[in-house]
Amino acid sequence: MGEKKIARQFDRAAAREFTRAILDDIRALEVMIDENLIEHDVRRVGAEQEMFLVDQRGMAAPAALRLMEQLAGDPRFQTEVALFNLEANLPPQTLGGPFLRHLERELNDVLAAARSAARAVNAEVLLTGILPTLRREDLLYKNLTPEPRYKLLNSVSLSGQGGSINISVDGLDNFKGKFDTVVIEGANTSLQLHLQVGADEAARLYNLAQLITAPLLAVATNSPVFLGKRIWQETRVAVFERAMDDRSASQLARGVPTRVGFGSAWLKNSLVELFRDNVARFPVIMTCEIPENPLDVLAAGRPPDLRAMVLHNSTVWRWNRP
User: Fold this and answer.
1) How far apart are CA 203 and CA 236, in angstroms?
2) Residue 253's pLDDT is what?
3) What does the pLDDT look like over 228-275, one tens digit per residue?
4) Which of 67, 40, 50 is nearest to 1 (CA)?
5) CA distance between the termini of the chain
6) Tally of CA atoms within 13 A in the half-sphere of 219 that contains its CB
7) Which of 218, 243, 206, 191 has its CA nearest to residue 321?
8) pLDDT tens profile 26-75
9) Can you say how many angstroms the Cα of residue 170 is from the centroid of all Cα atoms in its chain?
10) How far is the C-alpha of 40 from the C-alpha of 43, rounded, in Å?
11) What's the CA gap between 309 and 185, in Å, rounded?
């Protein structure tokens, strides 16, 4: 979901052209849905497992790049925003039968591979919502993964919030903190499930996902401690909302929607409504090369990759993301 191959140069002209490319992708997607060109009558489940890297004392270890060297050739792994995080992408399983057992086996396999690579660099892998031993000195720019996507996200979040990311949360303890890098988002890790469904049922099932989010969150809380403070049972919500927020104080006061949010309405007919909402509400903040017009690709009888729409969607963090 986090496209890494982005353009290094970004300006208003590039943003305008890329916005047009997103609209072309959305029109192409509508054609694909109308002409029944998207796979249907099958449901698959995939997953992303994020993990912390820690040292022998259980403290955050910025060892991701060294682990990636150890894991070279294993396409399941990729970096995350912080150097003390790693992500594994599990291959999809057909929904039904023993798919949960298969998913568990694959998860254990990637964890074994990550732990073996971690031990080679004197580190270990830990699964938790927020690392309880995380310190302020871990959340510095030096621990930002040095890739163009993360550097751009860092710049966008800081410029939008006036040069610093301010987090204020009242819980069992009160927390107020000011951070000068988006590495703060690396405080959060999770298991993210993906569900592939047919285009004709996608809107209904997306609404269902929205409906069950609150009770699922209530039974799956896993981050009660943040930088030594006892806050919410699920503090990742507050940290994520502010870490990736590009709104200024005046935009906050005017109620401008956030890129990190739950949503505000049910879908009526199609997931296309969410992609249109993305481009209407959230300005382009990064671009990539678009070699072909997706409508021309369709006319030639080939499936377009809808790369502009996918990249823009990866910069809008809905709790349930299409």
Assistant:
1) 27
2) 82
3) 999 999 999 989 888 888 787 788 788 888 889 898 899 999 999 999
4) 50
5) 10
6) 4
7) 206
8) 999 999 999 999 999 999 999 999 999 999 999 999 999 999 999 998 99
9) 25
10) 8
11) 23
Tokens 């830990």: give the residue.
126
SS (H, E, C) the chain: CCCCCCCCCCCHHHHHHHHHHHHHHHHHHHHHHHCCCCCCCCCEEEEEEEEEEECCCCCECCCHHHHHHHCCCCCCEEECCECCEEEEEEEEEECCCCHHHHHHHHHHHHHHHHHHHHHHCCCEEECCCCCCCCCHHHCCHHHECCCHHHHHHHHHHHHHCCCCEEEEEECCCEEEEEECCHHHHHHCCCEEEEEECCHHHHHHHHHHHHHHHHHHHHHCCCECEECCEECCCECHHHHHHHHCCCCCHHHHHCCCCCCEECCCCCCCCCCHHHHHHHHHHCCCCCCCCCCCCHHHHHHCCCCCCCHHHHHHHCCCEECCCC
Mean residue pLDDT of the chain comes to 92
Tokens at residue 280, please? 């209407």
Q: At 8, is the pLDDT very low, low, confident or very high (cuts 50, 70, 90)?
A: low
With a cut of 60, say whether residue 21 has pLDDT above it: yes
Note whether 103 and 47 are within 8 A (CB): yes
Query: In angstroms, how far is CA 30 from the centroid of its own chain?
Result: 24
The number of residues in the chain equals 322
pLDDT tops 90 at residue 222? no
For residue 65, CA distances in Å to 2, 94, 184 come to 17, 32, 18
CA distances from 16 to 8, 10, 12 (A): 16, 11, 6
Dihedrals φ, ψ of 249, to 5°?
Answer: -60, -40
Which residues 6+ apart lie within 8 Å of 55 measured at CB?
61, 122, 123, 124
Residue 182 · residue 233 · CB < 8 Å? no
The CB density around residue 281, as the number of other CB atoms within 10 Å, is: 14
- Residue keyed to tokens 């192409």: 28
Instruction: For residues 12 and 23, give the distance between their C-alpha atoms in angstroms, rounded to a whole number.
Output: 17
